[in-house]
Design brief:
Low-confidence stretches: none
Number of strands: 7
CATH topology: Rossmann fold
Structural class: alpha/beta
Number of helices: 8
Shape: globular
Helix content: 25-40%
Mean pLDDT: 89
Strand order of the largest sheet: 3-4-2-5-1-6-7
CATH superfamily: P-loop containing nucleotide triphosphate hydrolases
């Protein structure tokens, strides 16, 4: 299995981007080919992954998710860039992709499947792992990500009641998407982040 994994939580600050990048890099060090898709128009993953690559980011997730483009005119390979870490690649995002949300809504259910139709097969054929770094909400971008995915990881901040509330809502959302759009979608695990070691006075 070469899984496509969405990393989501209906709350910011739970280390979703950190989880995606660190896990992706760790797997690439083990000789795996890894693709990271930056689904968040805050573009934090893009800002980190593009550092040092020495080439402009001409195409991005905007080109992948724009409903006005036909599948035939969408060249996925040209939207994927190598990072400075061998085996680690990414599809960048740009802030302008925020305007695609209304277009996807107006495009109806077929527009929700654009990421699956345009990226999934290429990712499965060319990468060992694909991680989708999702925005901190449950909007159409997160729906699109889960429709394209096999598994979901939910990072949750240790000791945070608000993060736990986000987990409950996110798990219900995963079940809804699985029941309606993607019967193969599975909740992989809850990942506790930002755990502080207790201070021990020796």
């Amino acid at each position: 299995m070469k899984p496509i994994i969405s990393v989501i939580n209906n709350k910011g600050g739970t280390a979703k981007t950190t989880t995606v990048i660190n896990t992706g890099e760790a797997l690439s060090r083990l000789g795996k080919r890894v693709l990271i898709i930056d689904m968040d128009n805050q573009c934090n993953a893009t800002d980190i992954l593009q550092d040092g690559i020495g080439r402009p980011l001409v195409k991005s997730l905007y080109d992948v998710l724009d409903p006005r483009r036909s599948n035939e005119s969408t060249d996925i390979e040209s939207c994927i860039y190598p990072t400075v870490k061998e085996g680690l690649h990414f599809i960048p995002n740009i802030p302008d992709s925020a305007i695609l949300g209304p277009r996807i809504v107006l495009g109806g259910e077929p527009a929700l499947f654009l990421l699956r139709e345009r990226v999934r097969n290429y990712a499965l054929n060319n990468f060992d792992f694909t991680f989708i770094d999702c925005p901190p909400n449950v909007d159409v971008f997160v729906i699109s990500a889960m429709i394209a995915s096999d598994l979901v990881i939910v990072p949750t901040m240790a000791g945070s009641k608000f993060s736990l509330n986000g987990l409950v809502k996110t798990k219900a959302f995963i079940d809804d998407i699985g029941n309606r759009y993607n019967s193969d979608l599975k909740f992989l695990k809850l990942l506790i982040t930002m755990v502080r070691q207790p201070y021990i006075n020796l």
